[in-house]
Each structure stands twice: as C-alpha cells, then as structure tokens.
Amino acid sequence: MGEPLRSVLIANRGEIALRVIRACKELGIRSVLAYSEADAGSLPVKLADQAVCIGPAPVNASYRNARAVVSAALAFTVDAIHPGYGFLSENADFAALCEAEGVGFIGPSADVIRRMGDKIEAKKIARRAGVPTVPGSVGAIAEYGEALAVAGEVGYPLLIKAAAGGGGRGMRVVPSAATLEKDLAEIMSEAEVAFGDPSVYIERYLTDIRHIEIQVISDGSTVLHLGERDCTAQRRNQKLIEESPSPVLDADLRRSMAAAAVALCQEVGYRNAGTVEFVFDNVSRTPYFIEMNTRIQVEHPVTEMVTGIDLIKLQLQIAGGLPLDLTQDDIVVRGHAIECRINAEDPGNGFAPNPGRIGAFRAPGGPGVRMDSHIEAGYVIPPYYDSMIGKLICWGQDRDEAIARTLRALGELVVDGIVTTASLHEKIADSPEFRSGRFNTAFVADLLSRTESTDRASG
Ligand code: ADP
Ligand code: ADP
Ligand code: MG
C-alpha cells in the first residue's frame, strides 16, 4: 500500500490548474505550478504554494515540453505530476518519462495511455470486451481500394477519423463515393501534420445521435462508475453544454452502458479516472463506443455535483497508492447538473477567438451554483491557448430547476471587455428543444442558423 502524496506538480494552466490546486490545498498537499511566461500573472500562479516558469508562451516550448516539465518536478522534488486535460495528459511518452525518472504520473500507465490513445486499437479492445462499436473498418485504412470496400458495407455518408485525433479535430464526413479518394488523401496528410500519425479509419456517419459518456474511477483493482454525462449540445464536434443524468436514458440502458465501460477498464487494466465515450443512436436507442479519454475531463464537475464525490481528490489518492474507500453502492446520483463552457469567442462573428483585457468581472453565486474559472478583473487573456475562460455548473433537484438556475446564473455573470459565448448558452438553455431534453448533436447548428436568419430579418 502506498503513502498519501505530499507534493504535486501541476503541468497545466487556467481553470483546471486552479481546480487541482484547490484539491491539493484541501488534502494538505504542497502544490507546485509549472507555468509559461504568458501566464506569469495568472490566478493559478498566485494561488499555488509554489510556481516555476518552464518556458515561453508557445505550448511546445512550455506546457507540451515533457523535458521541461519533468525537470521542474525533479528540481522541486514533488511526488507526482498532475497533467490536467489537453497538453501532456494523454501523451504516453510523457507518462513513460515520468515512470523512468521516478516521478508519479497522475493517470493510468504509459502502456494503457498508448493503447487507448490510438482510437483504432481502443475500438479493437472494446470489441474484445464485448462493447458495441460504431460499424466501420476493423483496422486502419491503408489505401483507396480498402476504403472503397469498407464504404460498400458501411454506406454513405461515412466518417473518416484519425486514429490520433482529439478535441473535435481529425474527422471528415464523406457524402458520397465521388469525393472518397480525395477526402481520404487529404485527411491522412492533415492527420500526419496535426498529430504526427497519418493512420485513419472509417465509421458509419450516424446523423440522429447523442453523445453520452460514462465516468469511471479505478484504483487498479476495483473499477467503479459514476454514472453518465450527456454532451449532446455540441458545435463542430466540440462540447458546449454537458449534463447529468442524460434526459434520454432509462435504468436498463444506463446499467448496460456502465457495465460496458467497467468491462472495458477491466480488459485493459485501467487505473485512475477516465471516461468511456459513446454515441447513442436516437432511432434504434443503441449506444456505440467511440473512444476513451484516459484523463480527467473538462466536464467532470457535472458528475461531482450530482454524486457529491471529488474526482480530483480521488485521482490524488489513487496516485498515492491508496485503495478506493468507496463501493459502487456508495455512489448515488442526486438531482441534475448542467455545465456551460464559457469561451472567449464571438458567436456573432463565426466564433472568432476574442482574447484581450477583462474589465469588470462578476461571478454568479447563490444556491447550487459553481463557477470554475481562473479569470478576474484586469486579467489579460493570452492569445496562445484554448479560449475557454471558465465553466458554470448549476445543480437542481431536477432538470427543470437546473435549467432555471443556469439561466438565472448566466444573467448574473458579467465579463466586461471581451465577447464570450455566454449569450449562446442562454439561447440554448432557453430553447424549447433543450428544455424538452429531445435533441441531437445537430441541434446547436440548427438553432444558430435559425437565429441568424431572424437576426437578419429583424436587423
Ligand atoms: P473533454 O473530452 O474533456 O470534454 P476536449 O475533447 O474538449 O475535452 O479536450 C480537452 C482539451 O484538450 C481541449 O482544450 C482540447 O482543445 C484539448 N485537446 C484534446 N485532445 C487534443 C488533441 N489530440 N490535440 C490537441 N488538443 C487536444
Ligand atoms: P474527439 O477525440 O475529437 O473527442 P470523438 O471520437 O470523441 O472525437 O468524437 C467527437 C464527436 O464527434 C462525438 O461526440 C460525436 O458528436 C461526433 N462523432 C463521432 N463519431 C461519430 C460517428 N460515427 N457518427 C456521427 N458523429 C460522430
Ligand atoms: Mg471524444
């Protein structure tokens, strides 16, 4: 059995860095933040116990620089590194480097990250574990002839996906055979440039779907699940609003999806927190595995709000070698939670990033409201990183109360000086489709085109 961690280096920035610092403080763990020159004045730097600059603003010189991060961890003699999400969090070579240097990596083993990080390999493992996957190619597509053969079985439209894709990137819809050859060549070279891996595979392109994922946690022997999150409100395959529970699952489906996620984790020997993602076909009411994220996710607070369980603290405890002091029966979902990702982007201008100086800032408050954000008045959002400036998470006794609270809290939020996506969240949460709980992943795009045409008509 291990010993509780005494010190942790956080290799990340923004709200997730702050989230990990907060958990460390509550557990009496010394927090050391590794930051870039662009983040020197940020709130996480101010609130960490210690902070160390690891390089200039560009991510490859700092947050994605494995050597710089590990050197900082060794210099500050920390027990382990928390990678957050993005950056080095799903980088198997980085986890292996930590293992080699004798620094803990807060996540699964390098081997598990490597296997599950390759979406083709992950689908094979899922099939072995008896988990249903989206119909498509069994392995990578090497050339056009193979793509044509698979297309014959899968039909059009189909989806070509990069094995190493992520963050909503590395996917292309192919409407018909006419463009298959060209699309295949283009996405392979795009994947090579973006991810350093040209491997792609084919899936049936499902059109009336929801995105539903299962949160799992494992200490290496016991695997538990913490229910689902529904992330169907997306734009361009990127999540905007997440909620738990899903408004469409019944008890049987919920149980079978959770069992599938747990079986998958047992199959690979999973440790720490992870998420098993499914697309859910609205017509056949069938879930299909799409990928596993071997890290903490952006939307983890939704699960924390309905279960009362602190996922980051569990991550830290497991990384210290402590066994889970929970059983599946201890995990009970109560009420409903909704998260809005607030981005510094202009919905009125093609969602162009909108960095700049924040004037006045007012965070919403009151019952059931949680705001996870690193911004404050006078803060200058650097242009180098992801545009997310915070997450608003609201809990209610039921879904209707959670929606009412979300709208009430969005009304209280003030972020002067920059344009954010808060107004879009108000539109979504207030729409009849969202309120009904019956919608699919195309719903936000439909809502946007509808409101754009009314804006034009009334303007
Ligand atoms: P989640 O699955 O936690 O909802 P996202 O898929 O939105 O998270 O990704 C979390 C963060 O990591 C985002 O900032 C996203 O831009 C980044 N990210 C995830 N995967 C990749 C990748 N392969 N390449 C670049 N950035 C990524
Ligand atoms: P990423 O690694 O970028 O998160 P995912 O494989 O998780 O990529 O897919 C992201 C989103 O793309 C899903 O939530 C879903 O909306 C859409 N998507 C993925 N696979 C399919 C599919 N076969 N058909 C239709 N939409 C899909
Ligand atoms: Mg995904």
What is the CA-based Rg, rounded?
A: 22 Å
Uncertain ranges: none
The proportion of strand residues reads 25-35%
Number of domains: 3
Span from first to last CA? 66 Å
- The helix fraction, in percent, is 25-40%
3D shape: globular
Number of helical segments?
15
The set of bound ligands, ions and cofactors reads: adenosine-5'-diphosphate, magnesium ion
Mean pLDDT: 96
Q: CATH superfamily of the largest domain, called what?
A: ATP-grasp fold, B domain
CATH topology of the largest domain, by name, is: D-amino Acid Aminotransferase, Chain A, domain 1
Query: CATH class of the largest domain, anyone?
Result: Alpha Beta
- Widest β-sheet, arrangement of strands: 13-12-9-10-11-14-21-19
The main β sheet shows up as: 8 strands, antiparallel
CATH structural architecture of the largest domain: 2-Layer Sandwich
**Count of extended strands:** 22
Structural class: alpha+beta
Can you walk me through this structure?
The chain is an alpha+beta fold and 459 residues long. The chain has 3 domains: 7-106, Rossmann fold (3-Layer(aba) Sandwich), CATH 3.40.50.20; 135-204, Dna Ligase, domain 1 (2-Layer Sandwich), CATH 3.30.1490.20; 209-458, 2-Layer Sandwich (D-amino Acid Aminotransferase, Chain A, domain 1), CATH 3.30.470.20. It has 15 helices and 22 strands. It has helices spanning 14-27, 43-47, 66-75, 92-101, 110-117, 119-128, 144-154, 180-195, 251-268, 300-307, 311-319, 399-412, 422-429, 432-436, 443-458, and strands at residues 7-10, 30-36, 50-55, 80-82, 104-105, 158-166, 169-174, 200-204, 209-218, 223-235, 238-244, 272-281, 286-293, 336-343, 345-346, 352-353, 356-357, 361-362, 369-373, 380-381, 388-396, 414-415. Strands 13-12-9-10-11-14-21-19 form an 8-stranded antiparallel β-sheet, sandwiched between helices. Helix 4 (92-101) links the parallel strand 4 (80-82) and strand 5. Helix 3 runs parallel beside helix 4. 48% of the residues are buried. The mean pLDDT is 96. The structure holds adenosine-5'-diphosphate (2 copies) and magnesium ion. One adenosine-5'-diphosphate is lined by residues 134, 159, 165-168, 203-206, 209, 211, 234, 237, 277, 279, 290-291, 441. Residues 123-320 form the ATP-grasp domain. Residues 4-449 form the Biotin carboxylation domain. Pfam families: Biotin_carb_C (PF02785), Biotin_carb_N (PF00289), CPSase_L_D2 (PF02786). Keywords: ATP-binding, Biotin, Fatty acid biosynthesis, Fatty acid metabolism, Ligase, Lipid biosynthesis, Lipid metabolism, Magnesium, Metal-binding, Nucleotide-binding. It comes from Herbiconiux ginsengi.
